[in-house]
Amino acid sequence: METHVTFYWGKTGEILFSGWPGAGRSLFSYTVALFFVFLLAFTVEWLSHARLTASAANDVAAGMVQTAMYGVRVGLAFVVMLAVMSFNVGVLLAAVAGYSVGFLLYGSRVFSGSKINPSLDPSVSDLPPLNC
């Protein structure tokens, strides 16, 4: 298998695992892989804006939940980064689209009055933002 060190466009590359998205390298398996990367990035963005602990919860228990969710979020973000390191342009676009749609739904002002994002107050999220 050829390893790419520059960006390329094609369905023949491997993403995250040896032999994945499939030995046949069909367009369907490549599309499923791109959708998986999209969902991973979307989930990272959702976790960045989610309220996962009750305000009246025990501080120690709430802190443990926050810590666990932070670890999950950072782990998923690293998996998305490793997928993008396959240097496949489709994977890069799927990751950017996942982060963008996630931010649109959970972090932007577009849905500030809806049930998806009830408040833009930074204290609504349990986790600090991912910083570069």
TrEMBL record:
The superkingdom listed in its UniProt entry is: Eukaryota
InterPro entries (alphabetical): Cop_transporter
Q: Which Pfam families match?
A: Ctr
What keywords tag this UniProt record? Copper, Copper transport, Ion transport, Membrane, Transmembrane, Transmembrane helix, Transport
PANTHER family according to UniProt? COPPER TRANSPORT PROTEIN, SOLUTE CARRIER FAMILY 31 COPPER TRANSPORTERS
Query: Would you identify the family this protein belongs to, as annotated?
Result: Belongs to the copper transporter (Ctr) (TC 1.A.56) family. SLC31A subfamily.
Official protein name in the record: Copper transport protein
Protein's organism: Momordica charantia
Q: Which gene encodes it?
A: LOC111024520
